[in-house]
Amino acid sequence: MIKKVLLASLLIVSISVSAKEVGNSPDNLSNEDKLYGLSLFWKEASDNFAFFDQVPDLDFDSAYREYIPKVLATETTYEYYRELMKFNALLQDGHTNIYLPKELSSKHVGWPGLSLTEADHQAVVTKVEKELQFEIPLGSTIISVEGVDLETHLKIKIMPYIASSTEHILWNNAVRDMLDGAPNTKVNFTIKTPSGEFKDITLTRNSRHQQTDKVSLKQPSSNGELLEFKWLDNEVAYIALNGFHDEEILQHFNSAYENIKKSKALIIDLRFNGGGNSSIAAEILSHFTNKDLEGAIWKTRKHIAAFKAWGNYSEKYKSYAQDNAWEAGAMESLKAKENSHIVPTYVLIGRHTASAAEDFLIYADKLKHFTTVGEKTYGSTGQPIFFDLPGGGSFRICTKRDTYPDGREFVGYGITPQIIIDRMPEHLRSEKDIVLSSSIKQLKEKI
C-alpha cells in the first residue's frame, strides 16, 4: 500500500531547505524546485503506476524519503536529473521515464568513436571510426572498463540509471551506453579482438558532435520506410512493418496487398517496429486472419476519495483504502476481412518489437498459420501520462496494464517467440541475418 507521507517529508526537510538556500541558476535549481520535482514524480507514480506488484521488494515511500537528501545535495541540474533517473529506475518499467532537458544531454554526455551492441551479455564493437578500425577491429568485445570487468561495471555504473521492464532490454541499453561520460574525458577499456588478442585502449569522449567516417558490421535493420515489400523468391513474400505511429503505412499496405496475396508463404518482419497506434496494427492484421480476434485486456488504477475513506470501515470499499481498486477494459475485437490471405506466415520479432507491435502479436496469438521467430520482444507497453519538471525536463508514468485476453502477462517479460534464435556475437560478426535466413528455409519446407 502506498502511504501518503508527502506532508511529513516536507516538514522533515524544511530545516535543510532553510539552512542551505540555493537560488535558481542555469546550472543548479533551488532546493524548493528540486524537492517539488522529486515529490511530483513520487506523488504521480504513487497514484497512477500500474506495476507496483512487479517490484515487490520496493518500499516506494521509504525510497522517496531516502532520495530527498540525495536530490538536495546535488550541485548541478544535471546531477539532480541523474538522481531522479535512479529513483525512477527503481520502478523497472520501460514506459515510466525521466527525460533530461535537451541542452543538458548535449552539454554533459559524450562518447568515444565507436558503437556497441549487446549479444549474449557481451559488448560487441559493431561500428568504429575509420581511423580506429585497425586498433579496434570490428567484432571485438569489451571485457573491462577502468579495470573493472564488464558485468560489474554495468551493474554498478550504468544499470542503476536505466528504466527497463525486462532484463534483456536492461542489458541491451546498458551496453549501448556503457562508455558514455563527461565530454572530452578519457575512458580506458580492454578489448578482446576476434583473433583472440587482448588490447588496452584509451579513447576520448569527443565523438558526439564530430562528423567522422565510420566503418560498421552490416546488421539486420529497417530500410527507413514505414513498410517494405519485396519478393524473396517467386513464392515467398516479405513485408517489414517498421512502425504503427503513422497512418500512412495503411496506404502503403493497401497498395501492396494485391501483390502480397499472390504469395504462397509470407514473412512479416516486426523486429524494428517500436509501436505506435494499436488500431493500425489491428487493421493490417485483419487481412491475415479468417476469424475475429481478441486483443489485449487492460486495467488502470481507480481513485474515488469518498470510497477510500469508507474503505477504512467497510469491506465493500476496502480495495480503495488499499490503493488496489482498478477500472478494467479491453481492446476492440479485430474483425477479419472477407478477402483475407491465409498462408504459412513467419513473424520475425526481437528486442525492439515494442508496444503496439506487441499488441499485434497478442491479437495474432491464436492464429495457427502464424509462427513467431527470433528473440523476446521489448516487454513494455501501456498508456503513459506526462508531466513537466523544473529545469525543462519531463517524466512519464505508465498508467495502464495490458495482458493477453486470458490474463497472461507479457509486460515485464517480453513475448517469447515459438522459435527462439538469440543474438550471439558470432551472428554479428558474420554480418548475416540469421533470423530471416532460417525463416526462409523453414517456410520453403511448408509449401
Topology:
Elements: H1 6-19, H2 31-48, H3 60-72, H4 77-89, E1 97-99, H5 102-108, E2 114-119, E3 122-129, E4 141-145, E5 148-149, H6 150-158, H7 167-177, E6 186-192, E7 198-204, E8 214-216, E9 227-231, E10 236-241, H8 248-260, E11 265-269, H9 278-285, E12 297-301, H10 305-310, H11 318-321, E13 326-330, E14 345-349, H12 356-363, E15 370-374, E16 384-388, E17 394-398, E18 400-403, E19 419-420, H13 425-430, H14 434-444
Parallel strand pairs: 10-11, 11-14, 14-15, 15-19
Antiparallel strand pairs: 1-17, 2-3, 3-4, 3-8, 4-5, 4-6, 6-7, 9-10, 12-13, 12-18, 16-17
Helix pairs in contact: 2-3, 3-4, 9-12
Keywords:
flat, 447 residues, 6-stranded mixed sheet, 19 strands, 7-stranded antiparallel sheet, alpha+beta, 14 helices
Task: Please give a structural write-up.
- It is a single chain.
- Strands 2, 3, 4, 5, 6, 7 and 8 form a 7-stranded antiparallel beta sheet that branches. The protein has a 6-stranded mixed beta sheet with strand order 9-10-11-14-15-19, with helices on both faces. A 3-stranded antiparallel beta sheet has the order 1-17-16.
- The radius of gyration is 25 Å and the shape is flat.
- The protein has helices at 6-19, 31-48, 60-72, 77-89, 102-108, 150-158, 167-177, 248-260, 278-285, 305-310, 318-321, 356-363, 425-430, 434-444, and strands spanning 97-99, 114-119, 122-129, 141-145, 148-149, 186-192, 198-204, 214-216, 227-231, 236-241, 265-269, 297-301, 326-330, 345-349, 370-374, 384-388, 394-398, 400-403, 419-420.
- It contains 14 helices and 19 strands.
- Helix content is 32%, strand content 21%.
- α3 (60-72) runs antiparallel to α4 (77-89).
- It is an alpha+beta fold and 447 residues long.
